[in-house]
Amino acid sequence: MINILPGNVRFCSIVLIVSILGLLSGLTQHWPSPIFSQLSTNENPLGRALTAAEQNWMVSLPYLGGLLGPPMSGLIMEKWGRKSALFGAYVTGVVCSLAAALGTQTWHLYLSRATAGMSAYSGIIVAAVYLGEIADERYRGVVYSSIPLSVSAGMLMCFWIGLYASIAQLHFTILAVALLGLMLTGFLPESPYYLLQRLQSGNAGKSLSLLRNSDDILGELTLIQAHVAKTGNLQSKAVRKSLGIVPGLVVLAQFSGSVAIRGNIRSLFLKTGWSISDNAAGVVIGIIQICSSVFTMGVDWMGRKNMLTFASFGLAFLLGILGIYFQFLDESLENYAEITWLPLLVFMGYFLLFYSSLSSLPLLYITEIMPLNIKSLTGGFLMALQSLLSFLLVFFYDHMVKGLGTSGYFYVSSIAMLGLALYVQIMLFETKGRSLDEIFIQMNKSKRSKGAFSKNAPENCENL
């Protein structure tokens, strides 16, 4: 855990400032159902109800923004630095909020939803890369966990405000958060890794001294310089291995079905005999997200690989139970009317496991095992891939349920989670407690020896 002493207060303040971007991502990523209810009547800034086609566009446009925003942010991180990309994510958040708060035409809302996706997906990857480069390896996982925690807080905040606020009021709140983050980001130091990439060793030393609140940074600065020098080769084994490992992790994690399940949670509950509004479901899931994000802080104790494996097997088990329940429910509804509590508990356990690991740890792996020379651009494209998969899984959910049945959908997702658990065990290695240089050395090894994947691997790396 981070030692909260006077010497670390400055660093903790930097993490909190970056977490505002996570809060903004949570606020912009999802609209609560009261907002859609307003758009379904004449009581909205447009003066008319949106058509079904227009509402579908409102749902789809954030994913389109998620396709465009992260690659652009990756390019900005590579060319102009991490701070510039942080500014860019806030600027798109400002555009999102102003377009919805002041808009009176349909295209204004379209612009708001598209830039919402750009801001949310871009903000998450930029914050992850930045925090991954400024944090000490001893508590990099804890520092990173501030991102899912703040995103979850933003989503819950959005639902609570949406219950009582108009479209304009909600987006003026989002605007205030975006402007606050935009202003405070100016006080953040640039990543010393990026500065050394640009041969600005003097500025890198000042940045590292500010981050560590100490002038005794020569040893760490020398290590970072050596690491930056090693990662300039695009033909290295580390580049090839990371490009082979991380995309598979991102793709398999999406097949947990979380996006489609969350989006259709009300209809799933109705099938089991539970009547719950979209608002109540959103608030309950938001609370579970915050609780699970707290568990994510244990990643530096339990380890990335162990948490992913445990969560994958756990999700496979819970999804299997849901498959069996819905299969029997379709065959004999009366026999299962008395155990409607079962799917409720299973869904709660499902969201708790997912949001404590699969929703966030793949991104942590991206920032850790991707070499410095491809991290920004590749991370941006992988976030775009995640957005595309989310859109496809939501879009084709009804088609899959019609073809496979609700139980069949859960069975397929369960099998996918078993595949993910095996993938994690075979393809990934533990990065807990390792510096980015040690991880790079590990990735550059010609073959996977037992020593390379042992618990003592960090010590072995130090001796190379």
Percentage of β-strand residues: under 5%
By DSSP, the count of extended strands is 0
Q: Quickly give the structural class.
A: mainly alpha
Write down the Rg. 22 Å
Helix content: over 70%
Major sheet size, sense and barrel closure: none
The residue-averaged pLDDT reads 86
Categorize the overall geometry.
Answer: globular
Number of helices: 23
Ends apart, CA distance between termini: 28 Å
Extract low-pLDDT stretches: 1-6, 448-464
Order of helices and strands: HHHHHHHHHHHHHHHHHHHHHHH
Task: Please render the helix and strand layout as text.
Blueprint: H1 6-29, H2 33-39, H3 52-80, H4 82-102, H5 106-134, H6 140-144, H7 146-164, H8 167-185, H9 192-197, H10 201-212, H11 218-230, H12 237-254, H13 258-263, H14 265-271, H15 278-296, H16 299-302, H17 304-331, H18 341-358, H19 361-369, H20 372-395, H21 397-427, H22 436-443, H23 457-462
Helix pairs in contact: 1-4, 1-5, 1-7, 1-8, 3-4, 3-5, 3-20, 4-5, 4-8, 5-19, 5-20, 7-15, 12-19, 12-20, 12-21, 12-22, 15-18, 17-18, 17-21
